Amino acid sequence: MPVSDFASAAQELRQREFTRLAAAIVPTLEAMRLLNALELRAQVARMLERLGYELITPDTAAKLLATKDGKKYLIAFASTTSQSATRPNDLTQLHADVINANAAAGFYITPRGFTREAEAYAATAPLKLIDGPQLIAAIARSMHGESVPATYKAMCRQCGEIVGHSLDRTEAIPCPNGHPVAPTIARAALAIRKEEGGSTSRSYTPPKVYTRREINAHNTKYIARMKKRKPRPASEPPSASPEPAPDPFSSD
């Protein structure tokens, strides 16, 4: 086999192994926002199966259909290229589909968030909204007790032999024919995290640079607003901690 064919096969093996390892790790919010539409649906489909749902449609379908405890559920997704919060008009089609499918409820999933109007709409419809943090928490619950594989396979690009690499090692190891095979997967790449001073998200935009006049105008308004605010009574007890959010994927 030509060396170029080995390189292509090695890349395909790396992608398969990367997918296998990534499926065993709870993604960060930044990593979730980097997924394309197919990858997001596949991630959610695996989570639903771990939570006891049975998928009726393939994970490549635009909307997923699943059952649990004898009830049917529709799962729709926001566009992965949109940076905006989901609005009510994005929910109306899912609402209609839930009615037409005689489903118990619909899940609308976005790695970002929802407007207050969308939340108000869902509160009066058979819809459950799952934003980015809720989705990460649900994936973590579904993966509780699972361990990350410690090794993966890599192919020598000179002869096509397969070697076993460890995620904890960074040194090249020789294939059976003595060719060095460098690690193809870095552990950090499996869970992309936001770094100090920047962001890995493709949706990141640098903060706006304000002029001194704009800053002064903002500060003047803020000071005037603070002067009008009544001080809180010293005897007022601290507010209670909020109740933990319910699990949106628990069947009723």
CATH topology of the domain at 3-142: Trna Endonuclease, Chain: A, domain 1
Our Rg estimate from Cα atoms comes to 24 Å
What helical percentage do the residues reach?
Answer: 25-40%
Helix count from the secondary structure assignment = 7
Query: How many distinct beta strands?
Result: 9
Elements, N to C (H/E): HHHEEEHEHEHEEEEH
Structure report:
The protein is of the alpha/beta class and 252 residues long. It has a domain at 3-142: Trna Endonuclease, Chain: A, domain 1, CATH 3.40.1350. Helices cover 35% and strands 15% of the residues. It contains seven helices and nine strands; from the N terminus they run αααβββαβαβαββββα. The strands form three sheets. Strands 1-2-3-4-5 form a five-stranded mixed sheet, with helices on both faces. Strands 6-7 form a two-stranded antiparallel ribbon. The longest helix has 20 residues, at 3-22. The termini are far apart. Mean pLDDT is 85; it is low at 194-205.
Summarize the structure.
The protein is α/β, with parallel strands linked by helices and 252 residues long. It has helices at 3-22, 29-33, 37-50, 88-100, 116-123, 132-142, 212-228; strands at residues 54-55, 64-68, 71-77, 105-109, 127-130, 151-155, 162-166, 173-174, 180-181.
